[in-house]
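Project outcomes to date are best conveyed with an example. Our students and postdoctoral researchers have been running inverse folding experiments weekly, and each run begins with a structure described purely in tokens. The record below, which covers 344 residues, was selected by the lab manager from last quarter's runs and is presented without edits.
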């Protein structure tokens, strides 16, 4: 006797109808949720100033796996100074430290009102607030984990005014999903590009003394005393130098024009020096001349003569100086930079 075959059970007609209706209801709900989410992201389009939906920082492959979308700063290449109306190119390099590969949907985004809207090239949309990338592997237009992506754009400022700003960006997966603001090892992903338009007659009006920082590099005197100070007599002057650095990001120094940078006498401020050799590195009895344009990150050396004014008593003197942008403001006098002078 052959074994009995098991019976194959099929749902009844009424059950099949109920299952089909349930499936349709679930599908419709998913479509509604997805549509609402897409509408929310669309409302952020070209409005990166709003907090758009984030891609999140959690990984999907276990506790030790990287998150799908993350980046770290590699470098920013930018001109430290542009003349008003001059065109410049800025390159932002970011490394993909997430698990997902980047494609054309990954862009740098900025606010609608950004100065980059005056860009002459490098942006992808009519609002000029999206910058695409190219991979460092040019045969592959994508950037996998560990690859470096370059975001390049050109800028041109107004021709008749100075301007200084820090251009903020956020990294996006289009349409408007923000990358997390934290890079590898918890470091902040600081996407801000300093940009300066200025010349000797167009100083950026946004800048204050707090933006114009400086540092001490060195000094010398000839002839000199054992302490490095200058030795001066009634008939023999001395030569001195100060070297300082422009440690700011946005503040250019110009030697002439309407806002020249000079070294001002200090303690008390703008006093007339008894050792000013006007015409030999001095613009006046309380100003030392700077020889050339000093951009952010550059250094400037001031060379000047020291000649005792008639009747100056013999003794030891301390000639204090600090930078000033004339017709604007004095820079901070916190370093106590001075030239020791011995009069004999």
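After processing, the design step wrote out the following sequence:
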């Amino acid at each position: 006797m052959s074994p009995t075959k098991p019976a194959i059970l099929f749902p009844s007609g009424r059950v099949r109808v109920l299952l089909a209706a349930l499936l349709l209801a679930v599908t419709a709900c998913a479509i509604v949720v997805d549509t609402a989410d897409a509408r929310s992201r669309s409302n952020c389009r070209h409005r990166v100033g709003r907090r758009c939906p984030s891609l999140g920082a959690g990984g999907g492959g276990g506790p030790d796996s990287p998150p799908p979308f993350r980046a770290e700063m590699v470098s920013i290449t930018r001109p430290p100074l542009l003349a008003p109306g001059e065109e410049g190119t800025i390159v932002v390099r970011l490394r993909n430290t997430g698990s997902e590969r980047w494609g054309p949907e990954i862009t740098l985004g900025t606010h609608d009102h950004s100065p980059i809207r005056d860009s002459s090239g490098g942006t992808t949309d009519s609002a000029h607030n999206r910058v695409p990338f190219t991979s460092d592997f040019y045969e592959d237009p994508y950037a996998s984990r560990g690859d470096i992506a370059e975001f390049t754009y050109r800028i041109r400022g107004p021709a008749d005014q100075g301007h200084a700003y820090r251009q903020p960006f956020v990294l996006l997966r289009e349409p408007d999903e923000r990358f997390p603001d934290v890079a590898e090892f918890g470091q902040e992903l600081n996407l801000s590009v300093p940009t300066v338009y200025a010349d000797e007659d167009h100083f950026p009006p946004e800048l204050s003394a707090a933006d114009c920082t400086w540092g001490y590099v060195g000094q010398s005197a000839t002839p000199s005393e054992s302490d490095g100070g200058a030795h001066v007599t009634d008939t023999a002057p001395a030569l001195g130098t100060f070297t300082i650095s422009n440690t700011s990001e946005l503040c250019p120094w110009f030697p002439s024009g309407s806002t020249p940078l000079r070294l001002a006498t200090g303690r008390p401020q703008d006093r007339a020096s008894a050792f000013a050799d006007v015409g030999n590195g001095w613009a006046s009895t309380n100003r030392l001349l700077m020889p050339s344009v000093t951009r952010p990150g550059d250094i400037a050396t001031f060379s000047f003569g020291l000649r005792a004014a008639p009747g100056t008593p013999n003794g030891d003197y301390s000639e204090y100086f600090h930078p000033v942008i004339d017709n604007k403001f004095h820079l901070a006098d916190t370093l106590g930079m001075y030239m020791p002078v011995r009069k004999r």
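The longest helix spans residues 13-42. Helices lie at 13-42. The training component of this project remains on track.
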